[in-house]
Amino acid sequence: MPTWKRPSLDTKFYIDYKWWIDKGKDVRVAVRGQLCADCQARFPDHRNTEAVDWVDPETAEVVRADALLQSLRSDCSQKADFISQSNSLVANVFRIFLLNGNQPLTPKELHERIPWQSAEAILRTLASSTVYMGLRPTHQND
User: Fold this and answer.
1) CB 28 within 8 A of CB 6
2) CA–CA gap between residue 100 and residue 114 (Å, rounded)
3) What is the C-alpha to C-alpha distance for residues 138 and 14, in angstroms, rounded to an integer?
């Protein structure tokens, strides 16, 4: 059995959707909470919003997409304050992972997208004993 190692600045983190299930929470409620006020008004709750037809602007291909995530990516993310100093660090990190399709990133990479937070501060938050919004290291033994 591999030994556990403390996460470092090079440890990749991601949204662990299994954490949400294990906690009995619905991640879609959290995703809706990240929407801008205009989009939240369009989606009075997180139900019945799972799939919509979406036209890929690059290929013109029509694909089925999650309505909440699609609104977040195409509308909310275009607002200047979507990733900003006025949000909590956890909200900004959660939003980054929602935007990038949950591709794992290190605290250093997250710092590039949140330059007002040091990579060390990002690591301290994500590697703390409290798991925020399912943000966890990809492997405990990196």
Assistant:
1) no
2) 14
3) 6
121 falls within a domain? yes
List of residues 6+ apart from 134 with CB closer than 8 A? 15, 16, 17, 19, 20, 27
Phi, psi of 44 (to 5 degrees): -60, -20
The pLDDT tens digits of the residues spanning 54-73 come to 556 666 665 556 788 888 98
Q: Domain total for the chain?
A: 1
- 5 in a structural domain: no
Q: Letter for the amino acid at 80?
A: A
Domain housing 81 = 13-137
User: pLDDT tens-digit profile of 3-24?
Assistant: 667 899 999 999 999 999 999 9
Assess if residue 3 is contained within a domain. Answer: no
